[in-house]
């Protein structure tokens, strides 16, 4: 039986500066990192898959980032974010690394990218766009949502939780009628 699929973004492991920037409830980078690891592993089992949609670790050495990745359960796929330096993308433990990824999870077509898109492949055929980067400052729509830890109480999130939140969001019409109809 395949494992559960999870989504997260913007963990910023070991980045003390993010605490003040996003008002995270931690007193230090170490406390935040340990809490994020515990939250991840409270949900994610070894056979599960996690799409990390960017900004894995910031301002730490490769060895520390590797030790952090090694502590996280699941098969991990990275969508490169603006803070994901090559040394973090090259860590052992990523199943794959992408800038943008189109995939299907639980029958749902998804477009995953660290940066929110206004239009994406399959948008008018039900594809959802999951992103990070904005730390909750960019509101989602009925078809796109920030899956970063700042929006989900510092836990990875499952597709059913994402769908439930999307259902309560407004549907934003395209400015140009017929945009992306050919996808």
UniProtKB/TrEMBL annotation:
Residues 6-93 form the Calcineurin-like phosphoesterase domain. SUPFAM superfamilies: Metallo-dependent phosphatases. It comes from the Bacteria. InterPro entries: Calcineurin-like_PHP, Metallo-depent_PP-like. This is Calcineurin-like phosphoesterase domain-containing protein. It comes from Rhodovibrio sodomensis. The lineage of its organism: Bacteria, Pseudomonadati, Pseudomonadota, Alphaproteobacteria, Rhodospirillales.
């Amino acid at each position: 039986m395949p494992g559960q699929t999870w989504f997260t973004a913007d963990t910023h492991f070991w980045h003390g500066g993010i605490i003040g920037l996003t008002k995270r409830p931690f007193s230090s980078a170490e406390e935040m990192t340990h809490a994020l690891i515990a939250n991840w592993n409270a949900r994610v089992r070894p056979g599960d898959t996690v799409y990390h949609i960017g900004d894995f670790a910031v301002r730490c050495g490769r060895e520390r980032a590797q030790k952090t990745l090694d502590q996280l359960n699941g098969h991990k796929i990275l969508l490169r974010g603006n803070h994901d330096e090559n040394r973090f993308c090259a860590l052992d433990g990523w199943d794959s690394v992408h800038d943008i990824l189109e995939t299907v999870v639980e029958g749902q077509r998804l477009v995953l990218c660290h940066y929110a898109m206004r239009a994406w492949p399959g948008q008018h055929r039900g594809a959802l766009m999951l992103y990070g980067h904005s730390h909750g400052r960019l509101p989602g729509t009925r078809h796109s949502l920030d899956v970063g830890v700042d929006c989900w109480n510092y836990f990875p999130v499952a597709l059913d939780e994402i769908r439930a939140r999307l259902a309560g969001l407004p549907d934003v019409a395209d400015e140009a009628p017929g945009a992306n109809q050919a996808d």
